[in-house]
């Protein structure tokens, strides 16, 4: 379905070639200062056409709040939001009407729904993520206020150029501890905070752009100051919800939390995160963070960090031998310019999805703790 | 919460030290032949204590159907199932009452719920997975009948000994195409079908067992004959649901579908799966399968394959410097023998979770296609 | 929350004084002919200001489809719809800023959300029902196509003037069997098909209008040609879902299905609906229909009929002794003209909510029957 | 489906002729004192065979907690509970194998599921309500502790003998304000607290019992000390959730809140509940309560009261002309003794369903208020 979340819930609508895309956000607490200015920046960061590294289609993407606020404050009712579709160009995909684009959703869409849409893959489109980013921006806005939660994503790999993502590596650890949205954006359109690899990453993208090809990458995200105790211990472990959220983003192929796939090589005696008492916080903390801030499915107050694999973009201008819809061999070359790497642009989408997960779990855990408090009083 | 699924839904209860663990399964179609004999084998495969490679606690784990069947056929009503807890030994965890076990759920459980349970991490326990495996066995049973769906998981990595998981590798491709539960079990407790690496994997586990340590691994799973058109294009992409399912299994750290994290290194021109017409099936297929059987969030009829990273088991008999609950430095050594690698035992759990996802999506897509058919008739 | 339904789901947003009200409808099958012309008529029927019997505020209420259709056909993706708020007049409620309106949602809104909104009761407003009616119109449109389902509501009582609602009464039975939306609207703004009582009903409303008072009523609704087998036998009995739907409409105080509250007086020997074989339909039917078309929570193919009680409108121009927000006794008289009876205007809202329930259950039951069919084939 | 609730959620399983019936309850706060002794009394009150007024089948119905508690305290994990089916007597329904019982679920069950079960209507059975009552008892237990919530149901009508249910009637008002479960049970098996009508009610039941017939009735329920602010203003108005809950109970035909169906006859000027300032509570209250404790879908702190219509039991020993499954006219007479009125026995079921609704809404509203508090602190 088109909803995500239980108490903090977003429902999105819209595809590439309709009047608008948008969403309804439920669960926003009343009395919160909120205007379009709190939401637009993340939409602007998501927008394509911002640099030579991404597609030149300049979509304006101005968000318009429809409901749920009054005099700049939330009412507690659902926030309706929409962004008009301006740059529709429905005829630009001409040749694709003959060819299903390889590794795109054109064919599976028809197999599922029994018909072809002019957007090809319908809702499985980058444009659908606008509603998510708008909703995620509200979630981040609230999380910032209630617990100074910081959610920062960045590019950690392009092609085979990767930063070390071991949390015991000092460079990576420092990035996890200090990177901000501003510092990430200050690194340029590549959005990579590791000086040792970022220039090389740019070169890899440029090389693939110049050969009308595309290349994949990895986005890593850190959540700082996440409230302790979030996540449900069984099916809705916090990492499971994050994995769900991330793999629902178009073009993703993998998710790992904490030590991830590399961590399986580390014996328990080294992988386990020992406890120590923190005098300032007056509570136990872990001395290492291979767990990635989640243990037994529940946040433990350490930095939550995870990585998301994005495949190379499916749409390339290079000629590809493939088949037409009606089964004839042929060669497809997508017209126009296309994103050589969607990875840097995915940064605000990853942040948005992370924020949606955390905000929903805050509401659920708040329900539990406040009910425990009521029981204790009586 | 403790439910998973929308139309095919399992709700589980139970932890390590209570009377029973069990589940309620909703959405089982009526008129299906089903007895405990269809469910028990997967529970038996999940059971610890089956080999020198896993923990010697011999839990019997006999499933008892409580409701929803009559004369060996399903009624269409919920299937209640339970397994008695026999080997509870609540006092065996003595020293752990002083120490929160590192990288276990003991501390986060207290942080979340405000109290300590004798099972430590409560529901975040391997024992909770019994209900999932029982429910998953029913799902597999149905999927087999309606579309000859085959779900087979196996160990593809232990520590740093890994099989090549590139679907363009002939050995891996052959395994994806031909492995069966029986052939996997025939490889021994290691459950690895790759002759080139399995013996080395066993050695890695034995080495860690002998040093009272543990080691992680990767389970890969293939779903063959999955109906085309499953998955919802936005938040509930099929890979997102699988990722959610897999990361909800205890001790998991990562998930990847198709080409996964390695795939980000491959340019679009090579990563894209070209289409070709299949004369036998009378439909388009892809000539490669980097997509892993899912495109735009929707199954395309190719083999779905994915991998799940399992960390090294947190409970080891080796001494670990850590802190007590009340903040005093100390050294913890878990008594008794512990699983040096949970990875091989996770095989049926991964299969069960995969089956639950696919079955639920079959019901949802069946609703759509049958409604489309009704529209066409009128 | 602001969603209703499982597979056919509507999520609404908007209150009286924001930019627009609208909804997202999920679960609409692809390939269906659908334009705004299929939706607008029910919105127009819902609109206030159509007669001397209702409030003169003339809201235009033009629905605009945002997404989910292309070239007049549905895509299978969510249908976003909105209606602009034109006649906001936020200052008309001046005195109500001092007084919480009795039996309105002004005070409970503040108690729940901790703040006052200029609409008083926020989402508990008649205007919110626009999204429901738009979604319900789509549901009715589909139901008509797939099974010739007819959903017709009408006024059966105003104040103490009531038609006989016993299904064994020939007049009532004839109305249940033959009334159409057109025939109901042809009776005038009172929307009552019983010639014996309709004129008296009009007089009752006029009497209360002339004394600046209001009066309640009952809307009865019949669903003809409802598919057999809808409803889930436990918590989601069909009548339970209808009751939920109806009591969620503003100003409702009661719901009854079939024989309803009067039926409790009838002994089982007379209340039971005997079976008889119908040669034309080649199946059993009941000879009477005290059950109201639902038995054991499941539709049986007979007419489903139910009634909904609407209280007298809370907003009246007459002076009412009450208290101000800050606890001072005073007298409130709402300015302007107000609906003396909301009951006739509720007719399309009742129909919409009924359609949403039935459509959702069709999708759920279709999932079951098509899966049973798959099992039988193998 | 077989679940009810969002955060406080019960999932039930079981029908008349299986090993056990039971449920899983999610959302129970940790640290709560809870044993089977807190649950059994309501199950015992629900049990048939307690008096000459109800069926003599003496089912033992001992609840056994399976999980979620330790040393008499809840863990925060799901509470699994079951009751063994002892008195199954599957062969007692012999003749009913030929006849679908009129106004029972036998036929619709087959129409929905495509097969016959030995229980006839499967889950649409009184026995299924055991899981609900067990779950509801836990909810009531919590509500009592956190806000001294009192939920008391009683019989207010049998056949055409009814107490005055107008909240402005002194006798009815006194009952709403003072009745307790104990005082209700002290009135005998009729469970009617109105001395003026209870003896006559008993006679009505006896008369129908003696003629092998059955008769319906009305159960009224009051919820005192309900927290203010419960219910969501749109689809999940508190009265809508209560209506859903009540109409999901077998044999119900109607629901009304506050003034209900009679209230439609009262003009707004009399029906509106004026506000007045309460010096003790330091807040506004209403001087009358036609609203039934809910305004705009949200609880306002006044007594919530509602009534539920129960039809005459469908199973009677009297001969009924009807048709066999295969369409032959015949006469059915159910063997054995049957409940002449299910109404008094429904009292604890109504209480249980009310408690489930209120508890779930407490958790949801607690989430909101505690999040508002977090926002205010920062």
Automatic annotation (TrEMBL), chains A, B, C, D:
Describe how the cofactor binds: Reduced FMN (FMNH(2)).
Enzyme class, spelled out: lyase
Give a Pfam family name: Chorismate_synt
GO:BP terms for this protein?
amino acid biosynthetic process; aromatic amino acid family biosynthetic process; chorismate biosynthetic process
* Pathway assigned in UniProt: Metabolic intermediate biosynthesis; chorismate biosynthesis; chorismate from D-erythrose 4-phosphate and phosphoenolpyruvate: step 7/7
Superkingdom, taxonomy of origin: Eukaryota
Quickly give the catalysed reaction. 5-O-(1-carboxyvinyl)-3-phosphoshikimate = chorismate + phosphate
> Which GO molecular function, any one, fits this protein according to its record?
chorismate synthase activity
User: Per UniProt, which keywords does this protein have?
Assistant: Amino-acid biosynthesis, Aromatic amino acid biosynthesis, Lyase
Its Gene Ontology cellular component terms are: cytosol
Under the heading Gene3D superfamilies, the entry gives: Chorismate synthase AroC (3.60.150.10)
Q: What is this protein called?
A: Chorismate synthase
> What is the species listed in this Swiss-Prot or TrEMBL entry?
Candida tenuis (strain ATCC 10573 / BCRC 21748 / CBS 615 / JCM 9827 / NBRC 10315 / NRRL Y-1498 / VKM Y-70) (Yeast)
């Amino acid at each position: 379905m088109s909803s995500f979340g239980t108490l903090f819930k977003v429902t999105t609508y819209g595809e590439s070639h309709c009047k608008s895309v948008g969403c309804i956000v439920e669960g926003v607490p009343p009395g919160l200062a909120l205007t379009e200015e709190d939401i637009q920046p993340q939409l602007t960061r998501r927008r394509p056409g911002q640099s030579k590294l991404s597609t030149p289609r300049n979509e304006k993407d101005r968000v318009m709040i429809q409901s749920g606020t009054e005099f700049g404050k939330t009412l507690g009712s659902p926030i309706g939001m929409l962004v008009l579709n301006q740059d529709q160009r429905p005829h630009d995909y001409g040749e694709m009407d003959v060819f299903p684009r390889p590794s795109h959703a054109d064919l599976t869409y028809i197999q599922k729904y029994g018909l072809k849409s002019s957007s090809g893959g319908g809702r499985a489109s980058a444009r659908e993520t606008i509603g998510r980013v708008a909703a995620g921006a509200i979630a981040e806005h609230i999380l910032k206020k209630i617990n100074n939660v910081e959610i920062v994503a960045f590019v950690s790999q392009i092609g085979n150029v990767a930063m070390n993502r071991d949390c015991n590596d000092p460079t990576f650890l420092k990035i996890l501890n200090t990177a901000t949205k501003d510092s990430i954006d200050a690194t340029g359109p590549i959005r990579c905070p590791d000086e040792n690899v970022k220039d090389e990453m740019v070169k890899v993208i440029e090389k693939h752009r110049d050969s009308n090809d595309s290349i994949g990458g990895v986005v890593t995200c850190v959540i700082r100051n996440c409230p302790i105790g979030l996540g449900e211990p069984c099916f809705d472990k916090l990492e499971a919800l994050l994995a769900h959220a991330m793999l629902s983003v178009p073009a993703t192929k993998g998710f790992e939390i904490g030590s991830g796939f590399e961590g399986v090589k580390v014996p328990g005696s080294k992988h386990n995160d020992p406890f120590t008492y923190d005098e300032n916080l007056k509570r136990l903390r872990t001395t290492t963070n291979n767990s990635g801030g989640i243990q037994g499915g529940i946040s433990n107050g350490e930095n939550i960090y995870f990585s998301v694999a994005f495949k190379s973009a499916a749409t390339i201008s290079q000629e590809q031998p493939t088949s037409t819809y009606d089964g004839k061999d042929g060669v497809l070359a997508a017209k126009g310019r296309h994103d050589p790497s969607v990875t840097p642009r995915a940064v605000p989408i990853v942040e948005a999805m992370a924020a949606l997960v955390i905000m929903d779990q805050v509401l659920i855990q708040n329900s539990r703790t406040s009910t425990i408090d009521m029981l204790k009083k009586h």
